[in-house]
Amino acid sequence: TRVNENNLGGKVVWFRPKGKDYTLYYAHLDEQTVVDGQEVIFGDTLGLMGNTGNARTTAPHLHFGIYTSSGAIDPLPFVDPLIPPVPNISSDITKLNSTMRTLNKSVAISENQQLANTETLKQHTVVRVLAATSNYYKVVLPNGKLGYISSKSLVETKTLTTRKISDANRSLLDSPILTAGIKTNLVAGQTVKVMGNFEDFQLVSTEDNIVGWIKTF
Question: For the whole prediction, is pTM greater than 0.85?
Answer without folding.
Answer: no
